[in-house]
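hi support,

uploading two proteins for the ticket. first:
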Amino acid sequence: MLICFLYVYNVILTLLFLLCLGFPPSMAACPPSCLCASDIISCSGCNLSVVPFDLPGYATRLDLSHNRLTALHVGWISQPLQRLVTLILGKNFIRSIDVNTFNDLYNLQRLYLSTNRLSVFPLVIYEEPEGPLNLTFLDLSYNRLTKVPVQSLLSLTRQRGIYLQENPLVCDCALLALLEYWMWKQYPPLLDFRGDYPCKKGAESGWLRVPCPGLTLPAQEGLVVFWVTPTTVLNSSNSDLSAPAFNCSCSIVLRSGD
């Protein structure tokens, strides 16, 4: 009888504590396959192929790593997790992410998608009008990306960290220019993993021969043109374009404020 009384007493104290924090009792339950501590929910390593239906809505950190999730569809979470700041989905089997998948995750700042099977850059994450507009960290390392939307990344990475290391990226001229531009800008996601971008050359000679239609010289005022080889980039605004050590194969035009 005493044990039962103490149990009920502890439950009441817990509910009162959650109410003081602003968490309704109906949202306080933890799914059987997960561990919950305060506002941190971990469902890692539970062999899940679907996300638990009854996730607590008060979570600020949700760990769904080391499971068997294969896709993220609209409605993959049963209720909006409007407090969620960190979402960990690494080491699953995710191949696709639908449009509007992350709607209502207004406060999401860090998204981990490392070690999945994504072959297309999930640009939809940034295009959702009601999506995670505060997202500042995206980990896409160890996926199956061969191409990335270079022009979009130029603007997305100004104030955001996007990690792309250990993907089978094909180094066309646009990607090489992007990587060199990031080096010039001292972009931390590239600096931290500079040796983990195993690019594939576009020609046996080591020179990339990619046509650049519409390119005119001299460079327009207010623009910077980068002339790219697999190993070198010349900034046309302060270098001699006729230098014999460089072969103009392609370029990428960046606004001077980027």
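and the second one:
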Amino acid sequence: MAAELPTITTRPTIVSQPNFNAEKAATKLHRCLKGIGTDARVIIDQLTNHSNQQRQEMKQKYQNMYGRSLTEDLKVELGGHFEDVSLSLLQPLPEFLADCLYLAGKGLKTDEKCVIQILCSTSEM
């Protein structure tokens, strides 16, 4: 008789903000991206203090309000690792995980730890 596996519950580290307003968030991001210079603190606050679902709403509201892609505007204004992290935070979770799996298998050596971590830590999305 096989042993029963324990039930594991996970809790995201970034949770939905109860008073989230996608329009205000999109406005803050637009203001910090236009003109000379970019306010990195605003980008960090908006992308790391909201859940993935809220970031998707924020991205859609930005598109609707300004007729521009938030992802493309960030690509123009940012660079390096900060750009990579910001764009990753704006991806829907399934797309992000698919990209990670693709990159883990790309090249001469497969990153088996990455593949195992993704496959074993995700549940139905």
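thanks. also noticed: The CA atoms of residues 75 and 83 lie 7 Å apart.
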